[in-house]
Amino acid sequence: MPSSYPHHPAYIPVIKWQQYERYALRHLPAEVQDRVTPCIEIRTSKQHQNLVDNYHSVRASHTTLVDYSDPDGRLSGVRLAEFRDFLKIAKTNNYSVVPTLSPNDLNSLSFQDLNLLASFGEVAIREKISDFSLSSGQDSRLRAAIGKIKSVDNCSASPDFS
Q1: How many domains is the chain partitioned into structurally?
Q2: Is 27 helix (H, G, I), strand (E, B) or coil?
Q3: Which of 10, 83, 84, 113 could be stapled to 37 by a disulfide with Cβ–Cβ 3.0 to 4.6 Å?
Q4: In sequence order, which residues have a C-beta less than 8 Å from that of residue 117 and are 6 or more positions away?
Q5: Is residue 2 part of a domain?
Q6: pTM of the entire structure?
Q7: Residues of the chain above pLDDT 90, percent
Q8: How far is Cα 10 from Cα 49, in angstroms, rounded to an integer?
Q9: 3-class SS at 132?
Q10: Is 20 buried (19+), middle (13-18) or exposed (0-12) by CB count in 10 A?
Q11: Which CATH number covers residue 20?
């Protein structure tokens, strides 16, 4: 069944990579699968390992946003190392992944990390907002992050104001 709205953006559910969420994604009908682009939030090392072990059987050929930030929206320490590991695996296996991170984290990444992100061709920038508006500080960080990722060859950035 063709989509009634083929030019509308895909539905983006935010999921935590739990057992029944993986089951639901795996069993979506093909015509729905192509209209869903989930944002998978990985919050623990156990979830990271499960993503590494099972991503191929759930989402391998479908575009997916992947976010390793902590609940405060920060990517550091173990989370950053696991994010790098997953992105390297995704790149090796040609998974259709869109790395997703905050403007603060994007602005603080190393040149090597930026090149890894850019190798996917697209990055989603996720900023938490309230009252449906950005503060001047958020706006500045977002603009700086978009400029930074656009400075890397062959990569585009798309803000996600959630």
Answers
A1: 1
A2: coil
A3: 10
A4: 87, 99, 106, 109, 123, 149, 152, 155
A5: no
A6: 0.85
A7: 49
A8: 27
A9: coil
A10: exposed
A11: 3.80.30
> What is the distance between the alpha carbons of residues 66 and 90, in angstroms, rounded to a whole number?
11
128-146 exposure pattern, b = at least 16 Cβ within 10 A, e = fewer: eeeeeebeeebeebbeebb
| Dihedral sign computed on CA atoms, order 83, 106, 102, 36 | negative
User: Which residue shows structure tokens 């979506």?
Assistant: 28
In a domain, 57, yes or no: yes
The reported pLDDT for the residue numbered 160 is 53
Range of the domain at 124: 14-161
pLDDT digits 0-9 by tens, 39-86: 999 999 999 999 999 999 998 788 999 999 988 888 888 999 999 999
Neighbours of 154 (CB within 10 A): 9
More confident residue, 53 or 9: 53
Distance CA(90)–CA(120), nearest Å, equals: 9
What DSSP line would sit under 60-120, residue for residue?
A: TTS-EEEE---TTS---HHHHHHHHHHHHHHHHTT--EEEEE-HHHHHH--HHHHHHHHTT
| pLDDT tens-place string over residues 134-145 | 777 888 888 888
Which single residue is written with the structure tokens 């639901």? 24
Q: Which residue, among 126, 123, 114, has the nearest Cα to 63 in the 3D structure? A: 123
List Cβ neighbours of 67 (8 Å cut-off, separation of 6 or more).
Answer: 39, 40, 41, 42, 100, 101, 126
